[in-house]
Design brief:
Elements lengths: L1 H4 L18 H15 L1 H21 L2 H28 L19 H29 L1 H50 L1
Helix pairs in contact: 2-3, 5-6
Protein name: Coiled-coil domain-containing protein 86
Organism: Elysia marginata
Length: 190
């Protein structure tokens, strides 16, 4: 009632946001990525403008304001690094030195790291396949000989397994038949 007495409006219920809704930062990130993919020239122009504006703003600052901005920037960087350490702790992957730089961005969650890791594995597989194709192109006869060898060993393994299975079946049949025959002989005595 105090609010109404002083002429203030009562608080309206806040609009509920879906948990799946994107934040403005995510929307901006998506837009920048899309722009870079679709129109690199426009993206480059945007980056140049941003850079020029940032420089202009920095030049307009006084010396104590510049120091304050530096300190704030350092604190933000520390927070980012701390967040990254926590993410790395939660991550199921061991931290390898050979990881691409994109994987170690501080804002990535463990789930996103998993996706990146899968993408990295696919990339490695693509590279392996490309090397294999190059070898085949360089020496197709050698490749066909190796392929034939692999096929033959595979067939041999298959045959060996089949023989083992047949032997097992035979060995399973023998004791049972022997027992049945013994029972038959035993019953015929009576």
């Amino acid at each position: 009632m105090a609010n109404r007495r002083h002429g203030l409006r009562p608080k309206l219920p806040q609009k509920r946001v879906k948990p799946s809704a994107k934040t403005n930062a995510e929307k901006c990130r998506d837009y920048r990525a899309r722009l870079k993919a679709e129109d690199p020239e426009k993206d480059e122009e945007r980056r140049r403008k941003n850079h020029a504006n940032a420089k202009k703003w920095q030049n307009s600052l006084g010396p104590e304001e510049k120091e304050r901005q530096k300190e704030l920037s350092r604190q933000r960087q520390q927070k980012r690094r701390q967040k990254l350490r926590e993410i790395k702790k939660d991550s199921p992957f061991p931290s390898a030195k050979s990881k691409p730089r994109a994987q170690s961005t501080p804002t990535r969650s463990a789930a996103k790291l998993m996706v990146v890791k899968a993408g990295h594995k696919r990339e490695q597989a693509r590279i392996r396949q490309a090397r294999r194709r190059e070898k085949i192109r360089a020496n197709p006869q050698k490749h066909s000989r190796e392929k034939e060898k692999r096929r033959k060993t595979y067939q041999d393994k298959k045959m060996f397994k089949r023989l083992l299975i047949e032997k097992e079946k035979e060995s399973e049949k023998d004791p049972g038949e022997g027992i049945k025959e013994e029972i038959g002989l035993f019953l015929s005595d009576y």
